[in-house]
UniProtKB/TrEMBL annotation:
The keyword Glycoprotein does not apply. This is ABC-2 type transport system ATP-binding protein. The keyword RNA-binding does not apply. Residues 12-243 form the ABC transporter domain. InterPro entries: AAA+_ATPase, ABC_transporter-like_ATP-bd, ABC_transporter-like_CS, P-loop_NTPase. It comes from the Bacteria. PROSITE patterns: ABC_TRANSPORTER_1, ABC_TRANSPORTER_2. GO terms for molecular function: ATP binding; ATP hydrolysis activity. Belongs to the ABC transporter superfamily. Gene3D superfamilies: P-loop containing nucleotide triphosphate hydrolases (3.40.50.300). It comes from Actinacidiphila paucisporea. Keywords: ATP-binding, Nucleotide-binding, Transport.
Amino acid sequence: MTPVAPTPGVVIETSGLAKQYRGTLAVDGLDLQVPRGSVFGFLGPNGSGKTTTIRMLMGLIEPTAGSARVLGRPMPRSSRSVLPKVGALIEGPALYGFLSGQDNLIRYDAADPTADPRTRKARVGSALDRVGLTAAAGKKAKAYSLGMKQRLGLASALLQPRELLVLDEPTNGLDPQGMREIRALVRELADDGTTVFLSSHLLDEIEQVCTHAAVMARGRLITQGPVAELSAGTRGRLEVTTPDPVETVRVLAAHGVTDLVTDPHTAQVTGELPAEPPDLAELNAALVAAGVRVRGFGLRRASLEDAFVALTGEGFDVAG
Ligand SMILES: Nc1ncnc2c1ncn2[C@@H]1O[C@H](COP(=O)(O)OP(=O)(O)OP(=O)(O)O)[C@@H](O)[C@H]1O
């Protein structure tokens, strides 16, 4: 079943999308809406169904149930007309190590029947430039760092102008510098008007680069929307820095603060404010009146991680 008409301003839209493998419901009734122009983070712990979803969106596997539209067209039926407008980087780039970065891109470009061979060199040159690999263009790909390989993969997706980029875990395995480079590139592409859909199991990454996000857990969509709104729905945590944690916990608990955690390393006591929070100035005064030496007092903004934990009751497997 395909939705009657595509929703305007939406580049990826799924309805009840599901994929059942023998014994595993990898994706379970997914209703996803990715707005045009967004940097959309598809977030979830390992095994939550992200790659399976992306493979269905790209027409690589058939859904068991439900439907998907990409750029307004039903998939996988319209793969032929849709995929040329989509740059995809799924499960790491397929590169020839014995070829230079430049020659890898020439091969990619030559495999595209719509690409004019006369302008190939210029296309490859500008894609290399785009990802900052001009200086390393002649080096064999096997000598590239992981980050450079990833950027070369991105360059291959950028040989043609794209309306949509789909990146599966683009920073997986990269060091912090490599991650920063990819994030900067994603921002630049988005500034140019390309919609970027990227999956990640890293909350931080999504918060830093994405305008919108969808959160998956065990094949199901937990929530989706603008990143700022997702975390705004979750209350922040109160943080008190003090050498007197025992008395602090007592006073905070008496004021309705729950889930109190003492961290001896940071000398911080943190806790969840009640639905109707007490006046923070009064709470601070109550601590001082009880003899607590308050060295720091504040409300930490709720993160996407807090939202995830609040929504699923589970911790987020960031190590995975
Ligand atoms: N080809 C397959 N055959 C059987 N089960 C599969 C297959 N592909 C994925 N699965 C299962 O489906 C579930 C979702 O996997 P999927 O790879 O989509 O998750 P993911 O969120 O992308 O995680 P990761 O980041 O580890 O790839 C997992 O339980 C996985 O074991």
